[in-house]
Write a structure and sequence with these properties.
Elements lengths: L7 E7 L3 E8 L5 E8 L7 E6 L4 E6 L5 H14 L6 E8 L10 E2 L2 H9 L8 H14 L4 E6 L9 H4 L5 H5 L9 H14 L7 E6 L5 E6 L2 E5 L20 H9 L5 H10 L2 H6 L4 H7 L4 H25 L4 E5 H6 L1 H8 L11 H5 L13 E4 L4 H9 L6
């Protein structure tokens, strides 16, 4: 494929509460514009685009609250501006591709068929991601689309972290721990290495905390353990997801409550987590209510307790810790949550500076702290673009 001058790569990131997108120059890894459609609440539902200099190109409220409508609005904008921003490729964040699809690849009908068969592994994500691909196939026929899998970063998990203690037949069926938020973790590790190559030889814990949340241990640049397993429902308690449960809880719901598989999926994926405890999945709202709402305080306490406990476990898995990184919507923007998560971790060498933390500075640990603590904004779109570039070269 010959890359025409002035063509752009479009990156698409369907999250559980928003759609993020950006345009990248096809001749160099330079962002041209970025935007989002926030879908998490009536006061936040907005279609927003700005250029690389921060100038707003489009910004208006939207009444819809689903990915399909958001993508249709984006595709209309792109079609109306295709002379100025002609597309050469579209890179998609795909949460799950099963055991046979981890490395970035061109999206084909065969791959889409496989993704349909894997919906049960990521019911909150894959249906929307497939829907988005179909919309762009219709709006931009002939444009190459690339799947960038969130599981790619965790492909080298050691066997002790990858496999469940179940009969071999299930392992062969792909019933393994995949790990997620890989594009975020990949960006963080690459960003650290770009500034100082010595970080590639260190022990790092990255806490991607958002509506979906997970924590990963990175040793010598490789993911050696992570909280999410077979699906993005496991691990930490999240906005609407339960996180890890005793298998007996699932058996109870099936046998005693007689829930169907779909009802159980809905309960664990969409009606659990912080929402089940306090009536909202929005951490900012929980923080605002915490003084007078005991349920909000309970939700915050559980969330931070699980993060803190997991940090200790991941440090043990690596035999030590050099750096703790907070990223994701909550990790980047909630100083109080970071403070709560780091309380009582002095035995690991973690001490944060409250003033630096409150100002959301890059480095928030105290100067004498043995373990550095940083806040690094996630940029999954940059990794999607980087993975897409090889597919547009001759």
């Amino acid at each position: 494929m010959t890359t025409p001058p002035g063509a752009y790569i479009l990156t698409i990131n369907c999250g559980s509460s928003s759609l993020k997108f950006s345009l990248w120059q096809s001749r160099a890894p330079i962002i041209e514009l970025s935007g989002s459609v926030a879908l998490s609440g009536p006061e936040e539902r907005r279609f927003h685009i700005q250029d690389k200099d921060g100038q707003i190109l489009q910004s208006h409220p939207v009444s819809h609250a689903n990915i399909r409508s958001a993508v249709l609005e984006l595709s209309v904008w792109l079609l109306n501006n295709k002379r100025r921003y002609p597309l050469i490729a579209i890179g998609h964040r795909i949460v799950q591709g099963g055991p046979d699809h981890r490395a970035p690849e061109i999206i084909t009908e065969g791959l889409l068929k496989t993704l349909h068969q894997l919906v049960y592994l990521a019911p909150n994500h894959l249906p929307d991601e497939i829907r988005v691909i179909r919309i762009f196939q219709t709006a931009f026929p002939g444009i190459r689309q690339i799947a960038c899998f969130d599981t790619f970063f965790h492909r080298d998990l050691p066997d002790c972290a990858k496999y469940y203690p179940l009969p071999e037949v299930y392992k062969k069926q792909g019933l393994i721990r995949y790990g997620f938020h890989g594009l975020s973790y990949e960006y963080i590790t690459a960003s650290l290495a770009e500034k100082d190559m010595s970080w590639t030889k260190k022990k790092i814990i990255i806490a991607h905390l958002g509506n979906g949340a997970s924590i990963t241990a990175v040793k010598n640049g490789i993911s050696i353990d992570t909280t999410m397993g077979l699906s993005p429902v496991g691990g930490l308690v999240m906005g609407t997801r339960s996180g890890d449960l005793d298998p007996g809880v699932v058996l109870y719901l099936l046998k005693r409550e007689h829930l169907t598989a779909d009802q159980l999926d809905d309960l664990l994926s969409k009606k659990g987590g912080l929402l089940a405890i306090a009536g909202t999945s929005d951490m900012q709202i929980l923080l605002q209510r915490r003084e007078e709402d005991i349920k909000a305080q309970e939700a915050i306490t559980l969330f931070c307790y699980q993060v803190k406990k997991t940090i200790g476990a991941m440090a043990a898995a690596m035999g030590g810790l050099d750096l703790l990184v907070f990223t994701g919507g909550i990790g980047e923007n909630c100083p109080l949550i970071r403070e709560y998560c780091c309380n009582d971790l002095g035995f690991l060498g973690i001490f944060i500076n409250k003033q630096l933390n409150q100002r959301n500075r890059l480095l928030i640990s105290t100067p004498a702290c043995r373990v550095k603590v940083q806040v690094i904004p996630a940029d999954e779109e940059a990794m999607i673009a980087q993975h897409t570039y090889p597919f547009i070269e001759n």
